[in-house]
Specification:
The protein folds into 2 domains: 91 residues, Rossmann fold (3-Layer(aba) Sandwich); 202 residues, Rossmann fold (3-Layer(aba) Sandwich), CATH 3.40.50. The protein is 39% helix and 14% strand. The strands form 2 sheets. The chain has a 7-stranded parallel β-sheet with strand order 8-7-6-9-10-11-12, sandwiched between helices. It has a 5-stranded parallel β-sheet with strand order 2-1-3-4-5. The longest helix has 19 residues.
């Protein structure tokens, strides 16, 4: 029998798995993420399901001799070393579409909260009891130009919502979908044109070597003065220091970030500092700047929460089980790499 481990398991997932009693009986559940300290614990497993905090680096994969299949319970798979897995003949699958509506809706939640200063208004009333409107003037979404970077499932749903607000949409994608642009009445443009003409920019691309620092110190100056940036994709697609400088100078009016560069280290930074393991100056600078973002009045930071709805979470579990069942039947689905 194939040995199957579910890592990073949470209470809600355990509850969701109870809907599949037969499957629940053949898997082992672990709350921790995979890392170098605990990898030996999982050396006998042939199938491992994980979330984004488990790092399948080449070094870790070498220590998992029986591993044949990884089922990540996420859309993104930058935590998997694709080349190392392929060299070992390890198949990988993801959950490609669970958050397509969920993340798109959250994107607009952040957008409205930021541009209409909803949190500021709420916080003022709650903390001070003041109903003074000074400093709470926002801007409408109607007739604004929204720049959508990445037109996959999430990006397409963002565009649908934008149409409902009466926004003009420009999009950039390495692989344009002309039929989609006709159906949803938006225009594909170059990244440079999108940055120059958009009032609001929202990112919906996977994180990889091509999208690393897609927005950076070299092109951030192209962004329309007074524009806003929303990021619900991956923190690494924006160069942290470049964004900070653009916010500090007033070039960018505000940002709403559900993801941060080095966010994994943000969660564990206390441990890292105690152990003295932060050695790279750029990494340390990014960690410090992330803290500055949290304190800036024109920045909203949320804890990688865009995917977090009942519907999406149930879909994650169901799709992951389908991925594993399909692999066991010799017909793998939703494969990556």
């Amino acid at each position: 029998m194939n040995k199957i481990a579910f890592l990073e398991i949470s209470e809600w997932e355990t509850e969701a798995l109870k809907r599949f009693p037969g499957f629940l009986q053949i898997i082992d559940l672990y709350p921790e993420a995979l890392n170098l300290d605990n990898v030996s614990k999982f050396k006998d497993y042939e199938i491992i399901s994980c979330f984004i905090n488990s790092q399948f680096s080449k070094e870790i994969i070498e220590k998992l001799p029986n591993l044949k299949f990884i089922a990540t319970r996420s859309t993104g798979f930058d935590h998997l070393d694709i080349n190392a897995c392929q060299e070992k003949g390890i198949l990988m699958s993801n959950v490609p579409s669970y958050g397509s509506h969920t993340v798109a809706e959250f994107t607009f939640g952040l957008m409205i909260c930021l541009i209409r200063k909803i949190y500021d208004a709420y916080d003022r009333v709650r903390e001070t009891g003041s109903f003074n409107l000074e400093g709470l003037k926002g801007r409408e979404l109607f007739n604004k130009t929204l720049g959508v970077i990445g037109t996959g499932r999430i990006g397409a749903n963002v565009i649908k919502i934008a149409n409902g607000f009466g926004m003009k949409v420009l999009a950039y994608d390495k692989y344009p979908k002309e039929q989609l642009s006709q159906e949803l009445s938006f225009q594909y443009v170059s990244l440079e044109k999108l940055l120059t003409e958009s009032d609001i920019i929202t990112l919906h691309v996977p994180y990889n070597s091509e999208t690393h620092h897609l927005l950076n110190k070299n092109n951030m100056n192209l962004i329309k003065s007074g524009a806003y940036i929303i990021n619900t994709s991956r923190g690494g697609v924006i160069e942290t220091e470049a964004l900070y400088q653009a916010l500090k100078s007033g070039k960018i009016a505000g940002a709403a970030l559900d993801v941060l560069e080095e966010e994994g280290d943000i969660k564990e930074e206390q441990e890292l500092l105690i152990k003295g393991e932060i050695a790279e100056s750029e990494k340390l600078k990014t960690l410090l700047l992330n803290h500055i973002f949290i304190d800036l009045n024109n920045v909203i930071v949320t804890p990688h929460n865009a995917f977090n709805t009942e519907e999406a979470l149930e879909s994650i579990v169901a799709t992951t089980i389908d991925n594993i069942d399909s692999y066991l039947e010799g017909k793998p689905m939703n494969t990556v790499g």
